[in-house]
Amino acid sequence: MAKVPNIIPVTDLRQDAASVLRRVRSSKHPVVITQRGRAAAVLLSTEAYERTEHDLQLLRLLARGDKEIAAGKGFDLDAILTDADALLAED
């Protein structure tokens, strides 16, 4: 079952920002801020934001790798693993 998002109007955020921030930090779930009845912004904890940015970077790298493979570019996996083993052996 999908989670129901936390939604608050911008006026509630203005009136009690500290409480909203505590809720975001403790729940680890985003809060959707509405203005005039429509979603205007999303408030995330820094932990959730950093995790999302990290995941997005990984997805971008994977997409770039897929494009390189489709274009016939890239490196042989066995050669990469051999180089990685050599680097690890140096440590």
Descriptive overview:
This protein folds into two domains: 6-44, YefM-like fold; 47-90. It is α+β, with helices and mostly antiparallel strands and 91 residues long. The protein is built from four helices and three strands. The radius of gyration is 22 Å and the shape is elongated. The model has no long low-confidence stretch (mean pLDDT 89). 62% of the residues lie in helices and 16% in strands. The chain has a three-stranded mixed beta sheet.
List the helices and strands and how they pair.
Elements: E1 6-9, H1 10-15, H2 17-27, E2 31-35, E3 38-43, H3 46-70, H4 77-90
Descriptive labels:
three-stranded mixed β-sheet; 4 helices; elongated; YefM-like fold; 62% helix; alpha+beta
Question: What is the structure about, briefly put?
Answer:
This protein has 91 residues and is an alpha+beta fold.
Major sheet characteristics = 3 strands, mixed
Residues in helices, as a percent range:
55-70%
Number of helical regions: 4
Secondary structure tally: strands: 3
Which whole number gives the mean pLDDT? 89
* Strand line-up in the sheet with most strands: 1-2-3
Note the overall shape. Answer: elongated
The ordered string of helix (H) and strand (E) elements is EHHEEHH
Low-confidence stretches: none
Structural class designation: alpha+beta
> How many domains, as an integer?
2
The CA-CA distance between the termini, in Å, is: 48 Å
Strand content: 15-25%
Radius of gyration: 22 Å
